[in-house]
């Protein structure tokens, strides 16, 4: 049927899951927006969802028709959330499926974006398993775009076509994120981290220039594995070159494990029908007790700012929500339980405006994503410091040592004011 016909299955007051990653079902969302005048109080849930444009539901005329509730705020809805017309539910990404499964959040309808069916009648969620397995398990009605541009992936990312209540045929390009080329400072950070990662490590790496710099610095490593929330373009050369073999992983040995893919068409073509990759439910991929079973787990994440005690903010700029928790805390904790595991918080020492990102205390309203009780390595272009087992004085001194030089004196004064005489005495 057409998208306009399919979305007639949505009723006022329904709770609707919208598939995310780079596979927002854009045709269904556009059709739902066209029905806005007929509907009231429809709640839409999404997680990380990279849009090619701002969502058409983010329109003042539709403010009483739709309420967007995002578990991870991204470009498609960020402005709408911060303007006060949408909201966000704080939750570790890996724990969201539990909210669906135990009925804390009811789901009436699921909007999904799928591949063409295989010979057995299964379509694939492609680049976005993450929350989708739990959503289709719990929703009363499943409405699917069938899209030849969606790659077919294996694992938990498949559903039989007989379970779909409505099918809309589209040929809709997936959103793409261009490969961010690291600058000199970012390459320094990548080099520092790569030196600390042993051969045979299992990797979780995020998206962006610094993660790409880490991946670029790993080409001489051996027997690496991937157990990561996201699969990115930067991982492909390591797989093709044989640097990533997954041969020393304890969980799914021989296979690269992810829950979603985010990147360019080159990445999407690489994962299409690739049986060396497996896409699993985010509740499993991000489970710290699963993560920890891989030896030498190395988790590399970024942040917006960090304070002198090691508290990490990665989701907001003050009170302004920028993103979400995602899997950072899950992988920080999981790696801490792994034999030989370690986690890295990587960032440039200053913002693009030259503002300091290592602060005496976090900006008022900033959310703590990784607590100071769990922070391990912190890395800037000025070096890498290990906070594990360090007291508050040592933490402050170490973090000051990797701050931008022009801010170190004022940070030193602030540390003394907070920590007192012991800060001067302890060496």
Task: Summarize the structure in words.
It is a single chain. This protein is of the alpha/beta class. It folds into two domains: 3-169, 3-Layer(aba) Sandwich (Glutaconate Coenzyme A-transferase); 184-421, Acetyl-CoA hydrolase/transferase C-terminal domain (Glutaconate Coenzyme A-transferase). It contains 15 helices and 22 strands. The strands form five sheets. An eight-stranded mixed sheet has the order 13-12-11-10-14-19-21-22, sandwiched between helices. Strands 4-3-2-1-5-7-9 form a seven-stranded parallel sheet, sandwiched between helices. The protein is globular, with a radius of gyration of 22 Å. The chain starts with a helix and ends with a helix.
